[in-house]
Every structure is written in C-alpha cells, then in structure tokens.
Recover the amino acids of this structure.
C-alpha cells in the first residue's frame, strides 16, 4: 500500500483562520473563553445524568452519550488550533493529518446515528407508550449507542483507507486550520474524480438522507401530537421534539454545506468550519439542558451537595 509520506510529503502546512497577528490573538482569547466555559458545562451534564437516579430514562442516557461524543469531537481540532495561533509554522505531520481525518469522521458519523437513535426513542415514547419500558430497555439503548459508534467507525475507516493510498508530492498547503477530506484529496498527485464521487456519496449524500429522514420522522411525530388530546405530557413531548429538530438543523446544516457540493473553496468555508467543529458541537447538549427543568433541578442538587461537602 502506498503511503502519502513515502512520495515526498511528510507534513501539511495549515494556513489557519487569519494571517494577521492581532486577529489571531483576538480569536485565541475568544475561543479559549468559549472552550473553557462550555466544555465544563458539558462535563457537568454527564456527571449530573450519571449521578442522579431520577434521570435514568433512555432520553437522558442518550443525552449523556451525546455530550460525551461532542466533548471528544471538540478535542480533535481546537487544541491544535489554539496552539497554532502562537506558532509561525502551522504544520501538521502526515500521520497527524490522517488521525484528524479519522477521528473527525468517526465521531461525527457516530453522532449522526446517535441522533437517529434518539429519534427512535421519541417515536417509541410517543407512538407506543405502553411498551416503552420493554422496547427501550437498558440493553437496547446500549446496543443503539454501540451501533452508532460502529457505523461511525466504518464510515471513517473507509475514507481514511482510500486517502492513505493517494500519492502526495506537493504542494502541501491547506487553506484551513485542520485536515479534512475536501481539501486533502485535492493535493494528491493523481486523478481523484472517482474518489471525490465516493466521498460525496459516503459523506454528503449519507448526511442529506439522514437529515431528511430525521425531519420527516419528527414532523410526523409533531403532527401526531397535535392531533392528539392536549395535555401537559403531550406539550412536554412536543417541546422535546422541537428541541431535537433544532439540534438536527444546527448539526446537519454546516455538514451539508461542506460535503454536499463540489470539493472547491468558497468564501464562507472557514466560518462554517469553525461553527461545525468548535461552536455547535459543544452547544448541542447545552440547548437540550436549558429547556429541561429536570436536568437543571438535578444540577442544582449536585452543586448543592458539592458545596455542602466543601463546607464540611
């Protein structure tokens, strides 16, 4: 198997978000503040769900896994991006570039299918409430989460295996702050038309199909809830579905923009990449939490116990 770094390129040069020193410092402070505030909040969500017996339903189990996936996803590119703001040579090794590609698509793919598992959970809760406990048992939930990780792995490994077979002999500049397939394959010293088509199918078309399927399923659930008897439980279920739809739009919109088009550079690319890899993933669990009184109450109890332990 040919390796890209055996044909001349041992590293890639990342041009970053900006070449202006003042803008780089401003972005460093901005992202560091955001990262240091939102990352602990996601960790708190996981600790709260795991530590409170009142939050043992499948919905909260999936939410804790979503927060964990988002933390992992936002640990792939932001640390190096922050370090590169103070570096004159924003380089990444060939192996490091391939690792970024793998983990970004591995975790991103797992999150897509985790959201589909969450949609299935809402379908069972609304359409089959009497069988919800048996159909969404702990074993079934763990199987759905495991399947999401497995599908994400297969999605990613197929792309990486094909990319590492490409010969790279220069140039080696990526007009971005991390490695992604849309730009890396353009640097290959060979015809990549068929590979681009496969990447479009594996990433772009798959994302679009999952997006439409989720919208249709949540739309059908909302119509069913509206046609049913109005009650507090129905209103809560509808509110949960609306939040899920918001998260689907937030997560899928940048991915559709990036992968459902020809692999060329556009003016808004870097802005969309920042929201896609840094901002939106960490915000997803926060959006769920802000509208959920049960989690907020559980957080207050957890923080109250922590303060009590500190006083003792």
């Amino acid at each position: 198997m040919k390796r890209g770094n055996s044909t001349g390129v041992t590293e890639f040069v990342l041009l970053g978000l900006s070449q202006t020193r003042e803008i780089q410092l401003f972005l460093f402070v901005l992202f560091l503040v955001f990262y240091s505030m939102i990352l602990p909040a996601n960790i708190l969500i996981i600790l709260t769900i795991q530590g409170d017996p009142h939050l043992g339903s499948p919905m909260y189990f999936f939410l804790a896994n979503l927060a964990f996936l988002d933390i992992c996803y936002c640990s792939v590119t932001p640390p190096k991006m922050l370090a590169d703001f103070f570096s004159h040579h924003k380089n990444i090794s060939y192996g490091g570039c391939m690792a970024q590609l793998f983990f970004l698509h591995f975790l991103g793919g797992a999150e897509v299918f985790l959201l589909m598992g969450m949609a299935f959970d809402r379908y069972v809760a609304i359409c089959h409430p009497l069988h919800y406990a048996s159909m969404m048992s702990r074993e079934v939930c763990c199987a759905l989460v495991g399947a999401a990780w497995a599908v994400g792995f297969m999605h990613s490994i197929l792309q990486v295996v094909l990319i590492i077979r490409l010969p790279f002999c220069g140039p080696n500049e990526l007009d971005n702050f991390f490695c992604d397939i849309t730009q890396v394959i353009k640097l290959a010293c060979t015809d990549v038309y068929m590979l681009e088509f496969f990447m479009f199918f594996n990433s772009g078309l798959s994302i679009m199909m999952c997006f439409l399927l989720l919208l249709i399923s949540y739309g059908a659930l909302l119509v069913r809830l509206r046609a049913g008897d109005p009650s507090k439980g129905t209103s809560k279920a509808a509110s949960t579905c609306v939040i899920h739809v918001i998260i689907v739009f937030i997560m899928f919109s940048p991915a559709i923009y990036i992968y459902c088009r020809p692999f060329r550079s556009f003016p808004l690319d870097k802005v969309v990449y920042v929201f896609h890899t840094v901002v939106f993933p960490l915000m997803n669990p926060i959006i769920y939490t802000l509208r959920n009184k049960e989690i907020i109450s559980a957080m207050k109890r957890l923080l109250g116990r922590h303060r009590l332990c500190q006083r003792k």
Observations:
- The first helix runs from residue 21 to 51.
- The chain is about 70% helix and 5% strand.
